[in-house]
Design a protein that fits this description.
The chain has about 160 residues and is α/β, with parallel strands linked by helices. It has four helices and five strands; from the N terminus they run βαβαββαβα. Helix 1 links the parallel strand 1 (about 5-10) and strand 2 (about 35-40). The longest helix has 15 residues, at about 125-140.
Length: about 160
Amino acid sequence: MTTELWGVGQPLRGDDGAGVFVASRLARRPPEGLRVRVCETVPDNYLTLLLRDPPELLLVVDAADLGLSPGALVRLESPSGGEAIFSGTHDFPWDAQLRSLRDRLRLVFLLVQPRDRDLRVGLSPEVRRACLHLTGLLRRGRWDRLPPMETLPTAGGYHEKRSPR
């Protein structure tokens, strides 16, 4: 199975850089069979590459405020039938952009609950520990051990809380 991982986030906003942290660590020495892209806040820049050579599985690592404890890790999988699960992260409309691949691509979000998104470089201790754990799981191909997020905090799909804390 071909697998691609996209690390999404803004590393200048504290814990929002969680996805970039994980992807950057994996990109140094990618596990066999895993293509790694450090997308930061512009996953749309990688869309052409994805459409040209689509994997069977796309893992997207990102920080998401889901109302959990800082550093909590969850897995959110695209349901069969192509229903919308994720309205967007970093202004990228996942469902709309990947519509043409729905029958061929399994989309899984690996989400990290941030403690904060303050203007700073570096992760909080809780999120750093979680990201190191997630990196280890990804290296061993065990990302599916993350607990699934079956109920979303808002109806009609996930909508990230964007209010300042």
